Amino acid sequence: MAVPGERILGSYRLVERIGKGGMGEVYRARHLKLPRDAAVKILSPELVDEADFLARFDREAAAIASLDHPNILPVWDYGEAEGIPYLVMPLMRRSLKDQLANGPLPPREVAAYLRQMADALDYAHAQGIVHRDIKPANMLLNERGHLYLSDFGIAKGLSGGQGLTRAGMSVGTPEYMAPEQARGQAEPRSDLYALGVVLYQMLTGRVPYGGTSVVEILIKHVQEPPPLLPLRNLVPPLPPAVEGVIGRALAKNPGERYGSGRALADAFDAALAAGGTSRPAPEVPVSGRAGGPAGESTIRGFPPPPGEQAPPQYGQGASHGATVVGPYGGGGNRPPPQYRSPHALGGPGQTPPPGPHGQGAVPGYGPISPHAVPQPVPQPRNRTPLLIGGLVGLLALLLACVGVAALVAVNLGDSNANGTATAGVAASGTVVAVALATGTAGALATAPAPVPTPT
Fold first, then answer.
1. One of 98, 119, 133, 266 is an active-site residue; which one?
2. Which of 96, 331, 359, 365 could form a disulfide bond with 136, CB atoms 3.0-4.6 angstroms apart?
3. Do you know which Gene3D superfamilies this protein is assigned to (predicted)?
4. Beta-sheet pairing, 8-9 with 12-20
5. Which fold does the domain 94-363+408-430 belong to in CATH?
6. In sequence order, what DSSP letters do the residues of 27-90 get, joined into one string?
7. Is 133 part of the annotated catalytic residue set?
8. pLDDT in tens, 349-402
9. What is the pTM of this model?
10. Alpha helices in 291-411 (DSSP H)
């Protein structure tokens, strides 16, 4: 195979490799006749004979080509050279993931990014496409702060028959995966749930659910309400109404979430406009039930489910443009986040601090931490019922772990050569119904028992 600088694909000469993932590589390329750089995504040669991966690559090209929206990264060309398919797309040097490397963003900048992604998702959903991998690494930025949704490699058509995974299989990135998506039943509001996770991350500099294993993260998505303390510790403080927006966006039941990206963006704009700095009552952790189509969780103080009252239609919010970042404290005893000046821009080569399940390669899967099950305090009398209760609780947790593990094919994360955005296309290692490995990472892909479709 020719090295970059010597290799030509169609009308483009490959200049340098800027990203590498589970499915292929991404190169910066120069048009042979026009003074224009592009991003060229190439399927790995060893996967060319794999029908599933080839179909996924073909479907990504077809999905993007069918979408015409200012916030969806377009495809410029699609072809085959030396028996290997390739995609040509606009070159983007930064992503929202890079932007968040320095911590949370000012609320008005959050509103601008949220509006752009909401518009892109509403359009894709109207065209019958569910993205299934909404996350900052797949949100690319140009020099003016215009945001593009990218990487439709695991997108799924709503009309049925277009999925590459077996019934009940699941694909995506655990930190952003809705409860029903973990059960292999992604729908448009699964994308909106992931957008709610990104909203939380933009405001706080962290995802709401982390853990030492993929299973632990997914169980938190299914059972736990979003942690509100990181929102309440921000300096300057957020209006209290923002907590209600987050709670509804991350509702366990899809029917209790916002019905569209626009409704979510409008609600967030309204919460910011409402102002106020008074603190609500302390957060009351309420664990939801893992059973049912999408799990259930009662979160005190959040708005009623959609349908009881139509979402208000507010203005378009902040203008799109500036790309502002600021330092933050990551929790524990660190100081709360504080924002930088709107003129302090982050450099293109920055990457987020490492974490147990960040955007990079996922480490080995550890067991669920036992602290999730409170142990009863022994009493001098009637110790047997307490012991049985503790064993029953532990058994229930183990069964939940097994249930989730049987439903997930996990995203192996993004990797690139220089820490920058993967030039408009995320060269991710998302697993599609098969077990792969990247470094020490692995994946679970076991067909589960049938699960009722959420209504």
1. 133
2. 96
3. Phosphorylase Kinase, domain 1, Transferase(Phosphotransferase) domain 1
4. antiparallel
5. Transferase(Phosphotransferase); domain 1 (1.10.510)
6. EEEEESSSS-EEEEEEE-GGGTT-HHHHHHHHHHHHHHHT---TTB----EEEEETTEEEEEE-
7. yes
8. 333 344 333 333 322 212 223 333 333 334 445 554 444 455 445 445 454 444
9. 0.64
10. 383-405
pLDDT at 329 (0 to 100) = 29
Which token pair is 332?
């524990």
Distance (Å, whole) CA 44 – CA 21: 9
Is 41 among the annotated ligand-binding positions? yes
Query: In Å, what is the CA distance from 46 to each residue of 42, 49, 104?
Result: 11, 7, 40
**Nearest to residue 38, comparing CAs of 68, 56, 66, 18?**
18
100 pLDDT above the threshold of 80: yes
Place of tokens 């004979």: 49
CATH of 8-89, one of 3.40.50.80, 3.30.200.20, 2.40.30.20, 6.10.140.1670: 3.30.200.20
Instruction: Render pLDDT for 142-176 as a digit per residue (tens, 0 to 9).
Output: 999 999 999 886 666 654 444 444 444 567 899 99
Q: Which of 396, 375, 371 is nearest to 387 (CA)?
A: 375
